[in-house]
Each structure stands twice: as C-alpha cells, then as structure tokens.
Write a sequence for this structure.
C-alpha cells in the first residue's frame, strides 16, 4: 500500500504543537494526560514523536490537541515562525 506522506516529516503540525505546549508550560506527560481526559489516548512517547514529526497525527488527535492547547486548529498549520 502506498504511503500518503513520503519524506522525512510525517506531519505538518509537530513543531507548532511543541511551541504551544511549551508556551503553556506543559510537559509532554501533562499534555498526554489532558488528551486522555478528552478520550484521546496518546502516550508521552507519541507526543515526542509528533513533535519531532516522526509520527502521523489523526484528525481526532489534531482536534484534541487544539482543544487542550487552546489554539485554533488552523494555527497549528500556520507556517509563520514567531
């Protein structure tokens, strides 16, 4: 089966997830726990792999990440570096 994403990066949002998590002074473990409260189970190791773009992100995970990080989903895709 062909892969949808070929290349080094497996997602487009990992760097922004890391940026917003750190802005909120949240550890990867805390982010994982808050996602779990929404019924989205992403372990700390998977958070790390999302942030370094070596893991894909499902639409459900993306939605939950935006809620926990209190940011619009579209902002996670923003190419602006601040």
């Amino acid at each position: 089966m062909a892969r949808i994403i070929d290349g080094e990066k497996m997602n487009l949002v990992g760097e922004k997830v890391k940026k917003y998590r750190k802005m909120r002074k949240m550890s990867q473990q805390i982010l994982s726990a808050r996602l779990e409260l929404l019924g989205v189970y992403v372990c700390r190791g998977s958070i790390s792999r999302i942030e370094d773009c070596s893991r894909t992100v499902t639409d459900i995970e993306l939605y939950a990440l935006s809620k926990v990080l209190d940011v619009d989903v579209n902002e996670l895709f923003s190419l602006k570096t601040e």
User: Anything to note?
Assistant: The chain has five helices and no strands. The chain has a mean pLDDT of 91.
